[in-house]
Amino acid sequence: MNTLARRLAGAALLSAGLSFGLATTPVLADTPKDTLVMAWQFDDIVTLDPGEIFELSGAEYGAQVYDRLIRFDVNDVSKIYGQVAESWTVSDDGKTFTFTIRDGIKFHSGNPLTAEDVAYSLQRAVKMNKGPAFILTQFGLTPENVDQKVRATNPRTLVFETDKTYAPTFVLYCLTADVSGVVDAKLVKSKEVNGDFGAAFLKANSAGSGPFVLRQWKASELLSLEANANYWGGAPAVKRVLIRHIAEPATQRLLLEKGDVDVARNLKPEQFEPLRGNDKIRIVQAPKGTLYYFGLNQKNEVLAKPDVRKAFKYAVDYDGMAKTIMNGLGTVHQAFLPKGFLGALEENPYTYDPAKAKELLRQAGYPDGITVTMDVRNTSPSMDMAQAIQGSAAAAGITVKLLPADGKQVVTKYRARNHEALLYQWGADYQDPNTNADTFAANPDNADDAKAKPLSWRNAWDIPELTKKTAAAVEERDTAKRAAMYQELQREVLETSPFVIMFQQTEVIAERSNVEGLVWGPSFDSNYYWKVSKK
Q: I need a labelling partner for 118 at 20 to 30 A (CA). Which of 269, 313, 361, 439 fits?
């Protein structure tokens, strides 16, 4: 086959949405003008169900396919606006939120979107009680009462009742989260099997009203979206988005420079400068409310010792990684609230001090050091960070044995509390400080069969007093007092927790210069493809 024929064949396959192994990657002059092609590491996707999505890549997928009741302005997160909701009111006692649902929205199926669909979507998430359900159940919603507390009083009116008075913005921010994605109740109910609320169907299918429709998902291989030509907000300019799972940053760069992909999402710092000199490529930086950290499972009697936990915090070369692996990809940040959140603490008390770490281990009863396994997602920069931690920890008397795996395997093990140490990312679920306080500084029930399973639970950190303080902070309506309460919580977590928080992420995206309109927000679920176009 001659070169031109190979290009045409490759373009035809790409347009059809098929995936390629690296050995068969076609040689393309350019990607099709009506198709956005992206190289990205999305091996962490476990499900595509908005009632269960709890990973960064899944959250970004959901933002393209599902509308939500309300959203926040990516340029000013203090501004909340209605999406499915046209407007809303809050009762004088602050416990009843009444939403007027926008008229004229249709699901991909053609079914009209009504308040009944919104109510069902929220009720469904509570009753399924998957990972993100706590975002709703923290308002006193249970499988038993949710049908009464969250209800449609007519096709255009939704009522949402909380158990007590909270800061109104806290409630509203929670309703911007992935778990509030509105599903087509008629379609999903028709797909129910043995009372699963259609979860088996939505794991790999869509039932939304957003600007894109799911066409195909192959785990750790391909995610294909097709434009919703009838989207109520206006049809997307491109007909499809093809996302290829490309694990190697070097391969992503090569495909980008050749024009085989329009966007590369996981490049390394050393690749940025050469690309800045290429007039066909632009580098975009998007600060994220996402943290890189590792957790230490407190079921392990060695890691449960306070001095051992603290030794790990002195065994990380934060500045060294900031200047190399994370150069441009993030900044040193050790508190659980990212910069930009109410009450965020910008103190970084820990520096690399292997001698101090050794002394802490000696005080804990381990003068000869310890050995620990660390699970890590086999992608960049996570694997690079884990190897750097392995090296710096060795000088501190800590032998780290790395257990790399794909994201789905790592997060499944994490949720089962079967790790020793585990390196991962945590992205804010909504733009209120409780989103991180409730996972890093609260653990209402440390039992293996607990209903709520925040990061503290995953690492078996039993903290009844800290949990009470976290609950009190979310009820404080005075903004200044509330900020002070979160600063106190962060200092306590810094001092005593099994979390070694290291960096706040800056997402760096490389785009072909003919790509316009992609929105890279402060969270992965506020990255939007809707208005993308190609010149």
A: 439
By the 8 A CB rule, do 63 and 525 touch?
A: yes
Question: What value does the CA radius of gyration of the chain take, rounded to a whole number of Å?
Answer: 23
The two most distant CA atoms of the chain are separated, in Å, by 73
DSSP, collapsed to helix, strand or coil, labels residue 293 as strand
Separation CA 167–CA 116 (nearest Å):
26
Spatial distance between the Cα atoms of 122 and 37, rounded to a whole number of angstroms: 33
Quote the DSSP letter at residue 43: T
Cα torsion through 377, 59, 74, 436, rounded to 10? -70
Is there a contact between 84 and 105 (Cβ–Cβ < 8 Å)? yes
3-state secondary structure of 141: coil
> What is the phi-psi region of residue 340: left when phi exceeds 0, alpha when psi lies from -120 to 50, beta otherwise?
left
- φ and ψ at 233, to 5 degrees? -90, -5
Q: What is the DSSP string of 221-280?
A: TEEEEEE-TT-TT---SSSEEEEEE---HHHHHHHHHHTS-SEE----HHHHHHHHT-TT
**What is the per-residue pLDDT for 525?**
95
Q: What separation, in Å, do the N-terminal and C-terminal C-alpha atoms of the chain show?
A: 30
104 Rama sector, left if φ>0, alpha if ψ -120 to 50, beta otherwise: left
pLDDT of residue 167: 85
Q: pTM here?
A: 0.85
Q: Residues 465, 524: contact at Cβ < 8 Å?
A: no
Quote the mean pLDDT of the chain: 93
**Strand runs (DSSP E) across 269-397, as ranges?**
281-296, 330-332, 370-377
Q: What are phi and psi of 445, to 5 degrees?
A: -150, 115
Q: What is the pLDDT of residues 222-233, one digit of tens each?
A: 999 999 999 999
Q: Do 123 and 197 form a contact (C-beta atoms < 8 A)?
A: no
Q: Per-residue pLDDT tens for 308-321?
A: 999 999 999 999 99
pLDDT in tens, 192-223: 999 999 999 999 999 999 999 999 999 999 99
DSSP state of 338: P
Where does 72-181 have alpha helices with state H?
115-128, 134-137, 146-149, 168-174
* pLDDT at residue number 2: 39
Q: What is the mean pLDDT of residues 437-459?
A: 96
3-state secondary structure of 70: strand
Spatial CA neighbour of 19 closest among 180, 246, 210, 189: 246
Query: What pLDDT does 289 receive?
Result: 95
